[in-house]
Amino acid sequence: MNRADALNLVKESITQVVPDADLAALGPEDTFRDALEMDSLDFLSYLEILGERTGVRIDDADAPQLTTLSGSADFLAARVT
Amino acid sequence: MAEFTMPSLGADMDEGTLVEWLVAPGDPVRRGDPVAVVETAKSTIEVECFESGAMGRRLVEPGTTVPVGTPLALIEPAAEPREEPGEAGRPREEPRVPSASRRAAPAPAAGAGAGPAPAPAAGPAPPRAPAASGAPEHGAAEAGPLVRHLAERSGVDLGSVHGTGPAGRVTRADIERASAGAAPRSPRVRATPLARRLAAELGVGLSEVTGSGRDAAVRARDVSGAAARRSAAHPPQRPATAAARASRPPGEEAPGMRQAIARLMTRANRDIPHYYLSTTVDMTAATDWLHDHNRRAPLPERLLPAALLLRAAAVAAREVPELNGFWADDRFTPGEGVHLGVAVSLRGGGLVAPVLHRADTLDPHALMAALKDLVTRARTGRLRGSEVSGATITVTNLGDQGVETVFGVIHPPQVALVGFGRVVDRPWAVGGLLGVRPVVTVTLSADHRATDGAVGARYLSAVDRLLQKPEKL
């Protein structure tokens, strides 16, 4: 998966969890989990959606990398073939 | 003939707006089916039917705001056989007090002093009126007790009804025809004598008052409460504009949400003498167990610490039943089962406390699934009536917000609120040595009228003990 597609997929997944999320105001390195006030249930839903849509395995240890837009996009770009 | 009434969906609800019907007249309905959508000050809720049968005549149009307890529609018996002569004096249905009302029982009626009286949603009051005794009352007309009861409720004089049944018996259909033609009269409301006198003095219609007494009977203080609300220029009926509903942007606090919370919390703070206890629980065992489970589980089956915390809170409530129930009429009534209210903050502000019913019987996996579902629907979609009422104890978990300790305000008429903070690493003495351990602060706010500190302490030690054996939870 190229990085642009990965970033789009990340943004769509966030929007699915937080429908009114203002992604334009979000920098690539901002911790969106805090910025969008996602709680642990929201964040788990986000991981589930990423996993469902890409089929990639996401471990607890991967979670810290997945709290920013660029971290999530890099993760998917590297893992999803 | 049963009535489907505006249910009480929380101690802070006085009225609701019927938004839409989900079934058409004539459609079959089963107990537990959602039949209508109701908007309260705090949220939009699918309301279930408490009877099985067929959707009958609708009494209220969508867009109308009515007080709790107002009949919204009639539910007709599923099969509508003509009444046989041999049935005279024999009720066709059992008086349906317990089964229908039990589920709704903990739903507090609106207004001060609301207690675990059966909610209005439980249907009509049991037929204890003399009409049900089987003795003919109005002389001329032959009619079964249920038909007489219906006539009384509909304000129809049996003597003036032409019976079309066998041998000139008056049937339900006759009563309905007559009542459709007759000017609607308020059904007879169960009320105490003092309440009736007070209502007459204050000019309050008893049918507009939500009863907080046994079987939803209206009591004097319900009447004075209604009078006070009315004098505060609170019109009982007003059309809700569709535009106002549709225009609320997502993420903005529902109109009325703040006021509803304000009313409930003011009442809690005024009426409940709270006492507060706190303890710090070593979460090493629980955290290790979670990590181990989550390493092996696929994403949808992963557990959050909240699943174990809620499970421990529910089991501890079963062990210390003095904290699981309601304070009403100057005494404590234990809850039937542990129904865990979970405070959920909404994006844009405000909160709702949907209920995990029989939470003590759900293992952490089932609790986790139920929690995800409830929270998602509380924030994005619709909750059902049974999911916002009947909590016997409430849990608030502010750990995600970074808070370590939360001392909450009890939701009346409940008598306890459990607070969980964030799981944090702290220096911790174990066996004379200092180590770094994940710990969580568990608090209890409890009603001192119902329990003393020793009971609360028992509860917190139970939570601690349970969390040390996560594999047994």
Describe this structure in words.
The complex is a heterodimer of chains A (81) and B (473). With 81 residues, chain A is mainly alpha-helical. Chain A has a single domain (3-79), classed as ACP-like (Non-ribosomal Peptide Synthetase Peptidyl Carrier Protein, Chain A, Orthogonal Bundle), CATH 1.10.1200.10. Chain A is built from 4 helices and no strands. In chain A, helix 1 packs across helix 3 and helix 1 (3-17) packs across helix 4. Chain A is globular and about 30 Å long. Chain B is 28% helix and 22% strand. Chain B has 12 helices and 21 strands. In chain B, strand 14 (344-345) and strand 15 (351-352) form a beta hairpin. Chain B is elongated. Chain B starts with a strand and ends in a 6-residue tail after the last helix. Mean pLDDT of chain B is 76; it is low at 80-140, 182-187 and 232-250. The A-B interface holds A 18-20, 37, 39-41, 44-45, 47-48, 51, 58-60 and B 249-251, 291, 294-295, 298-300, 302, 304-306, 345, 347, 371-372, 375-376, 380, 399-401. Chain A: This is Phosphopantetheine-binding protein. Chain A: InterPro entries: ACP-like_sf, PP-bd_ACP.
